[in-house]
Write a structure and sequence with these properties.
Length: 306
């Protein structure tokens, strides 16, 4: 009895195992052999269009082009990358004409904030303070200052450099040891370009070869051209006319108030450089709107030349 039961139980177990094995084979399938396949990542869609780049922000390029008698830096600030260079200079008469220095700094800041105003083929260089010792004598400041730093009234002593030389009598056109200013004698230095400030401007011009130069003064309310005992350069007459019509300053071809010797713009005419003097109407303000109009007109004219 027991033997029959055990035999039957064995047959049932074997049958169950066989059924289970068949089911597993069907469900799992045959055993795979060979190289194992690794699932590949789903490709991410890409685009060939690049994200827009932010425009490069670059401020004025500062350079120290020289030093004053007392060692103060004479700086230039350049904006734009064009081949045609226009140069603006303030403060040749130091603290006596301090508003010409503020005008130059105002122009630097304005062009820095509005670089699109500079045509692509132009490069603009601004030398805000050609006579920093004269500025310091009046304002007590080195570099930047404000109108609030200037005492009431004008200080003629601030017109000269630290050696007592009128820098606008120290250049190489009809130079004399003693020049004239308002019918008073002023020192022209020991020789043309004897002063470090004048020598710095000469070096800068010869190295950079600008197309035109503008010097700011006060307070004659006019634009004066440059010439050195001969006819005015035709290009000087053109830039004077352009600036005058836009700004409203009248043009004066020849200054005849008194004999001027060693003037910087007159010297520039001897080396073929168009240059003019823009005299503000007073010693008090920069007359910004008038001068900005003249500057924009000058940019347009110079950028259109071929």
């Amino acid at each position: 009895m027991n033997f029959r039961f055990n035999k039957q139980l064995t047959i049932v177990v074997i049958a169950c195992i066989a059924v289970l094995s068949t089911a597993m084979f069907v469900f799992l399938g045959p055993k795979k052999t060979g190289k194992v396949e690794v699932p590949q990542p789903v490709p991410v869609a890409t685009t060939t269009e690049e994200a827009p780049k932010e425009p490069e922000v670059r401020g004025p390029e500062r350079e120290v082009i020289g030093a004053s008698v007392e060692g103060r830096q004479i700086e230039s600030y350049t904006l734009g990358d064009g081949k045609t260079q226009i140069v603006f200079v303030g403060g040749i008469h130091g603290g006596y004409e301090w508003n010409s220095v503020l005008l130059a700094y105002q122009l630097i800041d304005y062009l820095d904030k509005n670089p699109e105003l500079i045509p692509k083929n132009l490069k603009i260089t601004i030398i805000p303070s050609m006579n920093p010792d004269g500025v310091f004598k009046v304002t007590g400041k080195e570099g930047r200052f404000t109108a609030a730093d200037v005492p009431d009234g004008t200080n003629a002593d601030g017109r000269l450099n630290a050696r007592g030389v009128d820098l606008n009598r120290n250049f190489g056109c009809n130079w004399k040891t003693t020049g004239i200013w308002q019918n008073k004698p002023v020192s022209g230095g020991t020789a043309a370009f004897s002063e470090p400030e004048s020598a710095a401007i000469k070096k800068f011009v010869l190295e950079n070869d600008p197309a035109a130069l503008v010097f700011y003064h006060s307070q004659s309310n006019a634009i004066y051209g440059s010439q050195c005992g001969g006819d005015m350069l035709p290009e000087t007459a053109k830039i004077m006319d352009v600036y005058s019509k836009a700004s409203g300053y009248k043009t004066v071809v020849t200054f005849d108030g008194y004999a001027v010797t060693g003037d910087v713009t007159d010297w520039l005419s001897t080396i073929g450089k168009p240059a003019m003097t823009v005299e503000l109407a007073t010693h008090k303000t920069t007359e910004w709107e008038k001068n900005l109009a003249g500057i924009k007109a000058l940019f347009k004219y110079c950028s259109s030349k071929k």
